[in-house]
Write a structure and sequence with these properties.
This protein has 158 residues and is α+β, with helices and mostly antiparallel strands. It has helices spanning 20-24, 31-42, 71-79, 98-108, 117-131, 143-148, 153-156; strands at residues 3-10, 49-56, 62-66, 94-96, 133-135.
């Protein structure tokens, strides 16, 4: 490959402007083709920031690899809010069910360090805590303890 470009783009809404345009402009690829393909491949993550890698050759051919959006973006989308709390330990912006936490954990499973859904959910819980999101109506900072106590075994083991 002649080169690689990595960028975060809004899912399904990439355009030839920044960050892609200035990076792709000097390359031999057709920028519109790259943008169209990125939009096709990221449509499922509509509006979320999605990491993409474009590898291109001197002949103008290219490949696109689409990553999974950051955990915080998946949580925001799942819980339906725009920005996290400025004071996440006292000012909560949303609440997630254990099923929603599990869904995000499964979406991110390839990017997380965890070996199973239960531990992946604990990682998601940590991000919830930093965003000011409660889980099942309780402070996300206590989520690990509740998981370890077996409170969610039926959901997270399934």
């Amino acid at each position: 490959m002649a080169g690689t470009i990595e960028a975060l783009v809004p899912g399904g809404q990439a355009n030839p402007g920044p960050p892609l345009g200035p990076e792709l402009g000097p390359t031999p690829v057709d920028v519109q083709d790259v943008v169209a393909r990125i939009n096709d491949e990221t449509a499922a993550f509509d509006g979320m920031e999605v990491p993409v890698t474009v590898e291109y050759d001197d002949d103008g051919s290219f490949t696109i690899e689409v990553g999974v959006p950051p955990t915080a973006e998946l949580i925001k989308d799942e819980a339906g809010f725009e920005t996290g709390s400025g004071e996440p330990q006292t000012d909560f912006v949303a609440d997630m069910s254990i099923e929603q936490v599990k869904k995000v954990a499964e979406q991110k499973s390839t990017d997380l360090l965890s070996y199973d859904v239960k531990n992946a959910a604990k990682e998601v819980g940590g991000t919830c805590a930093s965003l000011g999101v409660t889980i099942e109506g309780e402070d996300a900072r206590t989520f690990d303890d509740r998981v370890d106590a077996g409170d969610y075994d039926g959901v997270l083991d399934a």
